[in-house]
Amino acid sequence: DILVDGKVCDCDAVVTCQVGDPVPLQVKLTNWSKHSVGPFALTMMPYQDYQNGVHNYDLQDAITFVGSNTFHIDTVKPTKDSVYFGALLFLYTGDFYLNIKFHEDNCSRELPLSWFCLPSVHIRATEPVA
């Protein structure tokens, strides 16, 4: 489950926020398998989609994380969940996306593609209301 500014996100919704206001993020990982999983890391990477196949991940002048964008997860037991909190601060207006992925924490090998089940989150940063 992914919550942005307290609202559950799905792949069809656009979350609107204001430039300059921290936007709380919450990612809840639930282990539905019969075995414990871990260790691995949860990484959140913002990007802009230019709608021509190009994704711009070089956004350090437009977005900053309040806290870390990577969370290390030791073990999640069967039928249990782990919740991770963070926040984004948008410095400019625009349409941004958040790519959320899991990867093994002890080596560079990626987890199987079945782990990439989280859709990108679409966030629209707008001018503050005066």
From TrEMBL:
GO terms for cellular component: trans-Golgi network. InterPro entries: Ig_TRAPPC9_Trs120_4th (IPR058568), Trs120_TRAPPC9 (IPR013935). Residues 15-125 form the Trs120/TRAPPC9 fourth Ig-like domain. It comes from the Eukaryota. Transmembrane segments: none annotated. Pfam families: Ig_TRAPPC9-Trs120_4th. This is TPPC9 protein. It comes from Sinosuthora webbiana. The gene is Trappc9.
